[in-house]
Automatic annotation (TrEMBL):
<comment type="similarity">
    <text>Belongs to the class-II pyridoxal-phosphate-dependent aminotransferase family.</text>
</comment>
<keyword id="KW-0012">Acyltransferase</keyword>
<keyword id="KW-0663">Pyridoxal phosphate</keyword>
<dbReference type="GO" id="GO:0016020">
    <property type="term" value="C:membrane"/>
</dbReference>
<feature type="domain" description="Aminotransferase class I/classII large">
    <location>
        <begin position="65"/>
        <end position="423"/>
    </location>
</feature>
<dbReference type="GO" id="GO:0046512">
    <property type="term" value="P:sphingosine biosynthetic process"/>
</dbReference>
<keyword id="KW-0808">Transferase</keyword>
<dbReference type="GO" id="GO:0017059">
    <property type="term" value="C:serine palmitoyltransferase complex"/>
</dbReference>
<dbReference type="GO" id="GO:0004758">
    <property type="term" value="F:serine C-palmitoyltransferase activity"/>
</dbReference>
<dbReference type="GO" id="GO:0046513">
    <property type="term" value="P:ceramide biosynthetic process"/>
</dbReference>
<protein>
    <recommendedName>
        <fullName>serine C-palmitoyltransferase</fullName>
        <ecNumber>2.3.1.50</ecNumber>
    </recommendedName>
</protein>
<dbReference type="GO" id="GO:0030170">
    <property type="term" value="F:pyridoxal phosphate binding"/>
</dbReference>
Length: 443
């Protein structure tokens, strides 16, 4: 601090703030611009009117149409035509746009109850409860499940909504290395044997929190091993299926379906409707006892307005299609198409020498750029070739592990994917980002 300047509050309180503001403004420059269409397999973005920083857009400006590799539209339900659109419009006619009340007051409609029954059946649990926002499903329910007498073991790459929930709960927290079962077991053992490090009392509950598919890595959690460990140490398991529900498993029922496990072995099954269902909100599924408890204790249930009708109806329609209840076979077709697109796209990029993270069946495909300076340029060069792709850097990733993140959809055609692969190949040569020694051009 300079002398005489003690009262001065710096604009950036930390290096993170400084980095985020300055580097992200440049990333916004190429990507984070208003969209002017449905976020389907194609997307319309607003052209910038003036080459300046921040949010200087002309709302009447031209739009550019791109192939959309940025939205989490895994099963192509964001397109919202046909039965999805018709049913949601009918729901607005019947119930209006908003519920204008919390579920506990006068916000629960017959549609909410029907949805909860369907979600429970879809994920294979006794009961389910839904919330208007995926983020709040985690941040408002974890504090209802654990408190300062409990411990949480959290994967080091867990999503911000999970971290927020854990911090709000006041539980003692330990993180374990991403998907590292030895580290998880070591830490579980330590918590069970030593108890709370300050009071030395045993913890009332130990909750392991993991995700199905990690959205920055494209990795799939090692669920069979995690279930074995939670049973061995008598811990509870919270599984966030935001990116795996609908998108993974032969019947699209998430990571449990992918590994062929019993859903009842997961104590708390959480997921969001913002990805595979093309809607909004989140759910928690589990035993009837758990769901009744959450309905009466969760802040997200008692103090937050109910999920809007059109949103609930979009989930009902898309979930029934995925489950094959419309009798058309469209759901299974989309699940298989997503799996095929994912494998093809990943293999083609690898062949060209890019470093691609994650499991071969993960529809989130991170392409490593490494250098912060290449992040914005990659996004901009792809946009010039008609491809919209999200680029990610610090603090969402470590500083030196910047990446582009492609999200596959069942709605992408082979021609679209080939165009994206060709554009990535061109930009890859310009930016010199084909780093793989095994598969790269110099292999
Ligand atoms: N959990 C995970 C793992 C997520 O990735 C996200 C957001 N993408 C959320 C929860 C929050 O969901 P929503 O965007 O539906 O609020």
């Amino acid at each position: 601090k300079e002398k005489g300047n003690e009262g001065f509050v710096p604009l950036y309180s930390s290096w993170e703030d400084f980095y985020t503001r300055n580097v992200y403004i440049r990333i916004r420059d190429c990507w984070n611009r208003p969209i002017c269409s449905v976020p389907g397999e194609r997307i319309k973005l607003l052209e910038r009117s003036t080459p300046s920083f921040g949010w200087a857009f002309s709302m009447t400006g031209n739009t550019i149409e791109c192939i959309n590799m940025g939205s989490y539209n895994y099963l192509g339900f964001a397109e919202c035509f046909g039965p999805c659109a018709d049913n949601s419009i009918a729901a607005i006619d019947k119930y209006g746009v908003a519920g204008c009340s919390a579920r506990e007051d006068v916000g629960t409609t017959a549609m909410h109850l029907e949805l909860e029954e369907l979600v429970a059946r879809f994920v294979g649990c006794e009961a389910a409860v839904t919330f208007g926002m995926g983020f709040a499903t985690n941040s408002a329910n974890i504090p209802a499940l654990v408190d300062r007498h409990c411990a949480v073991l959290s994967d080091s790459l867990n999503h911000c909504s999970l971290i927020t929930g854990v911090r709000l709960s006041g539980a003692f927290v330990k993180t374990f290395k991403h998907n590292d079962m030895k580290d998880l077991e070591d830490k579980l053992k330590e918590l069970v044997i030593a108890g709370h490090p300050r009071t030395r009392r045993p913890f009332q509950k130990i909750l392991i929190i993991v995700e199905g598919v990690y959205s920055m890595e494209g990795s799939i959690c090692k669920l069979p091993e995690i279930i074995a460990l939670k049973k061995k140490y008598k811990a509870y398991l919270f599984l966030d299926e935001a990116h795996s529900i609908g998108a993974l498993g032969p019947r699209g029922r998430g990571v449990v379906d992918f590994f062929g496990l019993n859903p009842r072995d997961v104590d708390i099954m959480m997921g969001t409707f913002t990805k595979s269902f093309g809607s909004a909100g989140g759910y928690i599924a589990g035993s009837r006892e758990l769901i009744t408890f959450l309905k009466h204790t969760s802040g997200g249930m008692i103090y937050s307005a109910a999920m809007p009708s059109a949103v609930a109806q979009q989930i009902l329609t898309s979930m029934r299609i995925i489950m094959g209840e419309d009798g058309t076979g469209e759901g299974m077709r989309r699940i298989r198409q997503l799996a095929e697109n994912t494998r093809y796209f990943r293999a083609e990029l690898k062949k060209r020498g890019f470093i691609i993270y994650g499991h071969k069946d993960s529809p989130v495909v991170p392409l490593l750029l490494f250098y912060p300076t290449k992040i914005a340029t990659f996004g901009r060069f792809m946009l010039q070739r008609g491809i919209a792709v999200v680029v990610v850097g610090f603090p969402a990733t470590p500083v030196k592990l910047g990446r582009a993140r492609f999200c596959l959809s069942a709605a992408h055609t082979k021609e679209m994917l080939d165009r994206v692969i060709q554009a990535t190949d061109e930009v890859g040569d310009i930016l010199n980002i084909k780093y793989s020694r095994k598969h790269g051009p110099n292999a």
